[in-house]
Amino acid sequence: MTRIIAGFAGSTALGVPKSGTRPTSDRVREALFSALEARDEIAGLRVADLYAGTGALGLEAASRGASAVTLVELGAQAARVCRSNAALVTARAPRGSGPRIDVVAGSVRSYVSHLATRSLDVVFIDPPYELPEDELRLDLEALEPGLDADALVVVERRARSGEPAWPAGLALETRKAYGDTVLWWARAASAPAE
């Protein structure tokens, strides 16, 4: 069972599509969000969950205080599940202070190519393991203009996939392994002083 771990929607069970998704394990999500909260990198921030699947990463961020969350999912069944899960989390939000949660049923590349400049603070990218590395590289390149200065990008891959090819505006910060799952943390370059 996939569930929200903490925050106002803690313990809320999330729907999971019958096939085609690989939700991030509770253990990995707990470690990820503990590290993010220790760095003060969730509360009040704008978050995107790309290749959302169930939306668990983005919805966990919403439950823990993100101000706006966008779930992007191409698969029709998974996008429907994301909408349903987003409604569950929204219903648990404190009255008048819940985050804005949007679901985009479409491709990651299309979504990131149309982002407003500097519109995201934290981005989770958990593509299917079979996504070719060149496709991931193109997604990261298209995402870069939409990242705020010092934005954080966390890419989840299988250990044997190796490090993503980062565009010039993203620099690897750390790598954390959890069994066969690896989280790659990268930071957007700060804006030049004006």
From TrEMBL:
<keyword id="KW-0808">Transferase</keyword>
<dbReference type="Pfam" id="PF03602">
    <property type="entry name" value="Cons_hypoth95"/>
</dbReference>
<dbReference type="InterPro" id="IPR002052">
    <property type="entry name" value="DNA_methylase_N6_adenine_CS"/>
</dbReference>
<dbReference type="InterPro" id="IPR004398">
    <property type="entry name" value="RNA_MeTrfase_RsmD"/>
</dbReference>
<keyword id="KW-0489">Methyltransferase</keyword>
<protein>
    <submittedName>
        <fullName>16S rRNA (Guanine(966)-N(2))-methyltransferase RsmD</fullName>
    </submittedName>
</protein>
<dbReference type="InterPro" id="IPR029063">
    <property type="entry name" value="SAM-dependent_MTases_sf"/>
</dbReference>
